[in-house]
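Quick one - first record:
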Amino acid sequence: MTDAQVFTLAIAVIVPLSLLIYSNSRISEAKETLRAEIKAETNALRAEMAELHAEIAELRAHLDSAFERIEHALKLHELEHHK
């Protein structure tokens, strides 16, 4: 084999391999970036869920107290008017 043939063969092997390695490193970077973004979004969603749970608990407490007032008013009405 001549030097030119060896050189051509080397380029035919080295260039695709180097592009493959470069592509894999870019894919790895993209995966890590996506993982970080997913983790950040997950943490944000968890914080929002905690806020929603707190608001739901507050609304339940408000509804419970409103129902107690209504029940008390009905009992008072019954005692006053339905003897």
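second record:
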Amino acid sequence: MSIKTIYKTGCLVILGLIITSFNYSNPLKGTWEYCGDVFNGKVEGAPTEYALQRKYSSKNYESFLLEKGEKPQKYEVGDYSLNADTCIETQTFSAQESKLIGVSIHYLYSIRNDTLTLSGTLPNGNAVKEFWKKAK
């Protein structure tokens, strides 16, 4: 192998590394099922009569209430953005009256194995830490 060939190969490898370093993979994208939370220091489990599911696309999310024998009911929709370990969510629709529509909430997020943890303080001052398990 000539030095020219080695140089070209090395340049292609470096270029490939640079290009793939900008490939952003969204860790939230997919479907998550609610597993419970800690609300103001009180541990609460997931409901047993129904399930809550959240579907994250690249910039939006939709939340559904799932009951056996019933069609999924959309109860919340919003936009979100990620920046390092922060997830900023802004609710744009709620099936129930909500004071959070248009309000951005900052969460620290982490994903360990297949569990998403969202920790933050709601606008009313309540501390929340939610747990969501990856479904799909």
